[in-house]
Specification:
Strand order of the largest sheet: 5-4-3-10-11
Distance between the termini: 39 Å
Order of helices and strands: EEEHEHHEHEEHEEHEHEEEHHEHHHH
CATH architecture of the largest domain: 3-Layer(aba) Sandwich
CATH class of the largest domain: Alpha Beta
Helix content: 40-55%
Radius of gyration: 23 Å
Largest sheet: 5 strands, parallel
Number of domains: 2
Number of strands: 14
Shape: elongated
CATH topology of the largest domain: Rossmann fold
CATH superfamily of the largest domain: HUPs
Amino acid sequence: MGDLMKIFNTRTGLKEDFIPQDPFEVKAYVCGPTVYDLCHLGHARTYINFDVLKRYLISLGYKVIHVQNFTDIDEKIDQRAKKEGISPHEVAERFIREYFFDMDSLKVMRATKYTKASEYVPKIIKITERLLELGYAYRSGNTIYFDVGAAGGFSELVKDLNETIVDEIRVQGKRGPFDFVLWKVTGQGFDSPFGIGVPGWHTECVAMSMDTLGETLDIHWGGKDLIYPHHECESLIAKTLTGKRFVRYWVHNDFVLFKGEKMSKSSGGKIYIRDLLEKYPAEVLRTWILRSHYREKIEFSEESLEETQVLYEKICKAAAKSRDKEEMGQCAKDFAAIFMSALDDDLETGKALLAVEELSDRVLEGKVKGAWRIFSLVETILGIRLRAPH
């Protein structure tokens, strides 16, 4: 496979050599959207950044087993269904289709397998029953809670809850303030030994990921907002079930900001992907996202997208000029080394694109030969199709 790439592991807070369990295969799980609305720019960032990691690992010779879920059990889905006079299933299926439309437009490679929470309810029930048997869960009123204290507390991703979590609510009936829901009896939803109701969010991803990828994942990717409580709770559930490390590399991308605030569906501060695609080519939007490192915040602005469009068009012109398949000169080889070295260093896509921009300038000035291989890497690894100029 050559030199090892380094990736930042949220668990340790360090860049680490990436060494999967199997030297030829990577097991990766990505948290998917809750399907009650269209995808916004924040979603685009999560799935484009992971897509580049996936493409890069494939280019290094790995087989990537990529599983992504859809959260199709949620109050927001129910609320939308009631408002529109249709079933929650119809709402979820509609926005799953819309998700694929947006991601296909952005050239995001499809996962090996997609899972839906609703299809895993029997496995979620079995997990909940097992946690009750082991003494890591308890019933209080209409709710089955996970007992965080009995499991030894959180320690995987959040090292000090007192500093990180300011106002955790102590709900009446909970043994500890950080205990979380495994099953809630509501009288509607799914039948279970605990009563008709719905599963807790965190249990869903444990059931889906362990069923499809096994007890230990190589990579678990998601937005930074999922570190707590979602990923911390997932990890604790899995650890109590198996006694093994659930995830080898936790990887989280930072937020897209809109007017200084995190972009999200719940806050209302969102820009839909398809609205942007009416103004800009998908390649420009993808390039804009990749100009920043995945662990940095990005502030959205029309000006930055327009600047990116100018950059994209310049790269396309240089790529078109390099289609003669000349042998790579030393200068082109040096730029190729810079490009690959940037990706080896925790997926520094911004640095990789800076190298491509400088290379493009030199190509257009007639100073570099054989650069076509590098532009090919831009297409295959960064997933940015370089269209011939009109």
